[in-house]
């Protein structure tokens, strides 16, 4: 007779427990909704000269690499440095329990989502409207520019004063803050070092929202940390960059080699002598048909008959690319210097091609290719680039294996290869380079056909890159990646080697909550750094 009462109690208890569970889950849902809705709301309360965009954020989840897409919660369009500082300081004050992070985005030329911030804030650095660009023409000329300024604009403005930066990248439609966060390398680096070796002063917003001016003499640790620091220690909002007198014209030269040892010997000679070219690069040519005929649109062969008889198909060739700067009133002298420098080189005689162009045409040469590729819809494709810094003592081993076995049939874009002098790099900066006095940049600048499953497809190129990296590791070549990409902190520790402890210490000093540049995947927010 007691069973109905027991049954009634059980039913009541079950109903009570079920109600508690529903109430508990409802509270969690409300809390989560409040948490996520409060993130954009708290940003909306900030007093800024610029503005946030919370709706049109998709373009900030894309970059030149075209392989990673992480949507941010908001894009900041700053009008002043204080807008950036206010935003970062607000996120810093939210503490470690907030997932918000911040990424500075320049012209969107990252390769692996480094300038993206998943559910965080992306700063559109090109919106930054600080003081206008200022060129100082004193005894030690420099240009004072925003971190969001493009190098091509710096070139045009500084040329009005007969000046130009000393060190460049091959492509000029990049922002100052973007290249200085990496290094900035081109064919002038053998003489002037990378772009980070030619900076007088920086203005930086740290991961705490502090605006700090720094140089070699003032706040020097922050100055050197930020240069080559992959965006980990602060957002570069302004820079003073060293200038030199600019030439009007350039003698642009290409010659070919069919032997790597001879090619590299001539490159090493040119970067070591006093009176040499102003720009020294090189590239690898894999199985290209009618190569010299293609050059005729931009270059003139010294011997047209011999050049027309040269066959490039089926071969791996090495092109030495050189430039001599000059002004028209010193043309004869420049011709003599070029002739003297070429006379000691051992290139294939029939492959000497020359061109004379303006200084701007030469420096902005890659943009011409960009325009052509954009017109064909071939610019916004995946770019699985691989950039390596290889010690001089290992470059022959590398070339024999990679150009002899791994890349035998075709390449999917330019392969650059040229040496630089370590003495022109400042070892106090954050950039990681090989230990030897001379090392090579080897850059595989591949483009993938999105729908292809063949040798020009993304998977094939990535597999090829993996084979190259595996060989470098197995052979213990001491290679370092430039524009590095790793996915675990263990890999980053290996990359930095003995520099890791110092790098981690700098992070804990200038960005202790790991708010900045999460797309590099070096540190995670609220996880210890050491």
From TrEMBL:
Query: What cofactor(s) does the depicted protein rely on?
Result: FAD
Q: Name one GO biological process term.
A: cytokinin metabolic process
- Give start-end ranges for the coiled-coil region(s): none
Q: Say which domain of life the source belongs to.
A: Eukaryota
* Reactions it catalyzes: N(6)-dimethylallyladenine + A + H2O = 3-methyl-2-butenal + adenine + AH2
Q: Name one Pfam family in it.
A: Cytokin-bind
Q: Where is the FAD-binding PCMH-type domain?
A: 68-246
Q: What EC numbers are recorded for this enzyme?
A: 1.5.99.12
- Enzyme class name: oxidoreductase
What are the alphabetically sorted keywords of the record?
FAD, Flavoprotein, Glycoprotein, Membrane, Oxidoreductase, Signal, Transmembrane, Transmembrane helix
Question: What are the TM regions of this chain, as residue ranges?
Answer: 15-34
Known InterPro entries for this protein?
A: Cytok_DH_C_sf, Cytokinin_DH_FAD/cytokin-bd, FAD-bd_PCMH, FAD-bd_PCMH-like_sf, FAD-bd_PCMH_sub1, FAD-bd_PCMH_sub2, FAD-linked_Oxase-like_C, FAD-linked_Oxidoreductases_BP
| Keyword flag RNA-binding | no
MF terms from GO for this chain are: cytokinin dehydrogenase activity; FAD binding
Keyword Nucleotide-binding in the entry? The reply is no
- Family assignment? Belongs to the oxygen-dependent FAD-linked oxidoreductase family.
This one is known as cytokinin dehydrogenase
Taxonomy of the source species: Eukaryota, Viridiplantae, Streptophyta, Embryophyta, Tracheophyta
């Amino acid at each position: 007779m007691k069973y109905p009462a027991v049954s009634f109690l059980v039913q009541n208890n079950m109903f009570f427990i079920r109600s508690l569970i529903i109430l508990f889950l409802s509270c969690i849902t409300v809390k989560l909704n409040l948490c996520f809705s409060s993130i954009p709301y708290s940003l909306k309360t900030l007093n800024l000269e610029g503005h946030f965009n919370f709706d049109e954020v998709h373009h900030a989840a894309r970059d030149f690499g075209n392989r990673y897409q992480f949507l941010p919660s908001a894009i900041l369009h700053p009008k002043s440095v204080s807008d950036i500082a206010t935003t970062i300081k607000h996120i810093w004050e939210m503490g470690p329990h907030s997932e918000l992070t911040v990424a500075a985005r320049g012209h969107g030329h990252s390769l692996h989502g480094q300038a993206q911030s998943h559910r965080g804030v992306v700063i559109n650095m090109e919106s930054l409207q600080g003081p206008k660009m200022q060129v100082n023409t004193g005894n030690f000329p420099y240009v004072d520019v925003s971190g969001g300024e493009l190098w091509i604009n710096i070139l045009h403005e500084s040329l009005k004063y007969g000046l130009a930066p000393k060190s460049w990248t091959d492509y000029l439609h990049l922002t100052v803050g973007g290249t200085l966060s990496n290094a900035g390398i081109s064919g002038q680096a053998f003489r002037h070092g990378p772009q980070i070796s030619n900076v007088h002063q920086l203005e930086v917003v740290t991961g705490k929202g502090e605006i700090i001016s720094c140089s070699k003499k003032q706040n020097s640790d922050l100055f050197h940390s930020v240069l080559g620091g992959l965006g980990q220690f602060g957002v570069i909002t302004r820079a003073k960059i060293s200038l030199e007198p600019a030439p009007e014209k350039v003698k642009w030269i290409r010659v070919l080699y069919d032997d790597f040892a001879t090619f590299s010997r001539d490159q090493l000679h040119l970067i070591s002598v006093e009176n040499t070219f102003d720009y020294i690069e090189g590239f690898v040519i894999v199985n290209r048909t009618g190569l010299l005929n293609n050059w005729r649109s931009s270059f003139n062969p010294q011997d047209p008959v011999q050049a027309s008889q040269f066959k490039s198909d089926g071969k791996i060739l090495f092109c030495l690319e050189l430039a001599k700067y000059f002004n028209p009133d010193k043309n004869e002298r420049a011709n003599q210097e070029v002739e003297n420098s070429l006379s000691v080189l051992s290139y294939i005689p029939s492959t000497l091609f020359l061109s004379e162009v303006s200084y701007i045409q030469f420096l902005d040469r890659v943009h011409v290719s960009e325009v052509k590729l954009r017109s064909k819809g071939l610019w916004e494709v995946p770019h699985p680039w691989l950039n390596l810094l290889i010690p001089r003592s290992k470059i022959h081993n590398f070339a024999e294996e990679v150009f002899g076995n791994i890349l035998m049939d075709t390449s999917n874009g330019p392969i650059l290869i040229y040496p630089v002098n370590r003495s022109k790099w400042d070892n106090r900066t954050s950039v990681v380079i090989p230990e030897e006095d001379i090392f090579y940049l080897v850059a595989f600048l591949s483009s993938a056909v999105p729908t292809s499953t063949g040798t020009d497809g993304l998977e094939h190129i990535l597999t090829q890159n993996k084979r190259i990296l595996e060989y470098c590791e197995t052979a213990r070549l001491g290679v370092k990646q430039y524009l590095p990409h790793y996915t675990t902190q263990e890999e980053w520790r290996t990359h930095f080697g003995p520099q890791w402890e110092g790098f981690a210490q700098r992070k804990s000093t200038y960005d202790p909550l790991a708010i900045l540049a999460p797309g590099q995947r070096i540190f995670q927010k609220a996880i210890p750094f050491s």
